[in-house]
Amino acid sequence: MTGARVGASPRRVGGAERVTGGQRYVADIHIPGELHVKLVTLPVARARIGAIDTSAAERVPGVRLIVTAADLPQPVPRFGPQFEDRPVLAVGETKYHGEPVAAVAADTRDAAEEAAGLVRVEHEELPAVFTLAAALDPAAPLVQDPALRPGDPLAGTNVLRVHRVGWGDVDAAAADLVVERRYAFPIVTHFAIEPHACLAAPDGDGIAVWSTIQHPNWLQRILAKLLGLPLAKVRVHAPDPGGGFGGKQHAKYEPLVALMALRADRPVRLVLTLEETFQAVRRAAAEVTVRTGLRADGTLAFQDVAADYLIGAYADIADRVVGKGSYVGAGPYRMPAARIVARSVLSHTVPSTAFRGFGNPQVNWAVESNLDEAALALGIDRLEIRLRNLARKGEAFIPWDTPADGDWAEATRRAADRIGWGTPAAPGRGRGIAVGIKSGPTTGLSYSTVRLLADGSVIVFAGTSDMGQGARTVFAQVAGDELGAPLDAVTVVMGDTAVVPYDQQTSASRSTVLMGNSVLAACREVQAKVRAMAARVHGVDEAAITVEHGVVRLPGRELPIRDVVAAGLGRLGGEVVGNGEMRKDADPGHPLQGAPAFFEFNCTAIEAAVDEETGDVTIVRHVTVSDVGKAINPLQVRMQDEGAAIQGLGHTLMEHYIYDLRGRVRNLGAIDYRIPTSMDLPLELHSEAVENADGPGPYGSKGMSEGALLCVAPAVAAAVRDACGAVIRDLPLSPERVWRALRERDAARAGREDAR
Fold it and tell me: What is the pLDDT of residues 671-693, one digit of tens each?
């Protein structure tokens, strides 16, 4: 049961500040006496670093500090969320285009930039690998020194780790049809509107850091270890990021800036340009081979998936992306036998990291496209083949794991209905449909504190980062609903490790479920204290009192919670405080170290038109339907789905890195790297949510911010094929690629005519 606030769509907390420019981001924060940092990089991907001459740079007025690897603690500290393999500055050689070899700090940004351009670095370009094929060649140069991987049998290769999941006997499975194809997914970047930025300053006998980070407590832990400080001496300020999408989860240059601040004994700030951000974070590319076995009636017999992810020069969180992203690689289907092998492959390219979807879009693109191929070969409707195989609610589609936690067929049918599936499409148009699934968080720990003040207003303290997903609003709705406070009387405090309780991380669409449950638990503790207070004030047995949605019910009467609290606190004033905890412990025996708390499921249906003269694709209608359990804020759910859908069109139709032969990214920045704009939006965009209150979050909610991105690409590719017969298995579906596929179609048709 919920009150009037949950399930409604009140104005977004902090929304007005975001759209009017009133919000203060990290780049808006300045500290008197701060120095500005500019990074020094080399014009190649991999090079042996020789002498570094900083003499000309030191003469630039305003330059206060120049740091190279030789100036750092020795050995140069390394860090990373999975493997501590990334040095604060390049040591011995650079591993990718854009890796810094030095950093300049000056009184002004212009002075720092001028001085950085004057730093002379002797270097010798070295052989490098930029593609999966090159990296996997037995004769390829190694990206990482094997000494960094002691005891690792793969240390002599560029394979960081191999992930294997499976059940049944794929090799013995009987199938009437086997379809095997290879699919490619490109390197893309997050392109958050706010650039990456960090600011560090000495803080007594510790340090304070301001960062665009999504995981402030994780950053606190990394900096404390790297600097040799207690956690209590590292304070991380994390103002609401202006978009993250996973790219701001983990430390990038914060360790460097912190060390420079301590060395200079004054504040130091670094704000990356968009071009520099391209060289700091990106999504892993992938090549996926899928063998799908089916019986004649379209039921699945087996799925055999081999996925190679190009993760870049350092591990970051990319290997976790590979393992978790490929884990549900057999799809949300009843699958008698499955074999999934995924490899994290190092290369001399920008390190990859988490990106909305967390490795699933790469595999989903291949698996759903292959299922379309199978449906066409069997002569079975593409919607019907999915409905025949989708796991039913409560069915363990991965034999040992969390069962299907939603009515996924309902979402699929609803999307099909909205696209007009089964009705004739207009000439030159085609339709496609695909489903996608992603595992939710497998571990988690979120603490919160809720304070009910004497006047009935509420303060919520939570360590979650609100990067646009609307966490502040959801927590305010939960607290306001439970404690009877209007939303304008609820304040949500975030973003300061010295003020708010610990939160493990903000990722995996976990905020509503994990922190939401923590806030709910804190509110319930407040309610319990109010019950005891009411019993004391009114001389009533506590067991006869209930507190719900801001109303205290005593025998024969009801009172607003604020009246009870005011009377109970009396002239001294005060507050009622509740603490909440939501813990999901790790399971060392599970392939993911824990079963998913929930699954994100989405069905996407597309109607597209293709200009056969140019290869240009127009999305006529885009339908996205997600299984969300309970929409605590329906408008935010809709906006998250629509944002994810449009972001998915990016890697589907246009986005990709272009590397030259020396491993340099040639399309850095907004001019040469295209993302969807208002000119590329679908002519119609429809989003719906299936609500069955079957999630583990407050009031039956689930996480849902990533689902609508998962299966955009296979749905669009299927619609393009349906419209014009062009078969494309490498993303993006750029006009040139579609045009070439159309020419191949014409050549194949001509060949068949000649054969007659």
Answer: 999 999 999 999 999 999 999 99
The pair of three-digit structure tokens given for residue 195, joined into one six-digit string: 């650039």
Which among 555, 584, 613 is the end of a domain? Answer: 584
Domain boundary pick from 545, 563, 584: 584
Chain center to CA of 323: 15
Task: Report long-range pairs for 389-395 (Cβ below 8 Å, ≥24 apart).
Answer: 389/298, 389/299, 389/300, 389/333, 389/334, 389/335, 390/332, 390/333, 390/334, 390/435, 391/332, 391/333, 391/334, 393/694, 395/334
**Same domain, residue pair 456 and 555:** yes
Total domains present in the chain? 3
- DSSP state string for 650-687: HHHHT----B-TTS-BS--STTTS----GGGS-SEEEE
Residues 401 and 253 in one domain: no
Q: How far is CA 290 from CA 302, 304, 339, 374, in A?
A: 10, 6, 10, 11
Distance from C-alpha of 403 to C-alpha of 83, rounded to nearest angstrom: 32
Side chain identity at residue 233, one-letter code = K
Q: What is the pLDDT of residues 697-719, one digit of tens each?
A: 999 999 999 999 999 999 999 99
Looking at the fold, whether 561 and 660 belong to one and the same domain comes out as: no
Q: Are residues 224 and 307 in the same domain?
A: no
Please tell me whether the overall predicted TM-score, pTM, comes out greater than 0.85 for this model: yes
Instruction: Check whether residue 416 and residue 474 sit in a common domain.
Output: no
CATH number at residue 396: 3.30.365.10
Q: Is 307 found in the same domain as 215?
A: no
Q: How many CB atoms lie within 10 A of CB 509?
A: 24
Please return the burial class of 348, using the count of CB atoms within 10 Å of its CB with bins 0-12, 13-18 and 19+.
Answer: buried
Same domain, yes or no, for 505 and 371? no
pLDDT at 322 over 80: yes
Residue 730, classed as helix, strand or coil, is strand
**pLDDT tens digits, 547-565:** 999 999 999 999 999 999 9
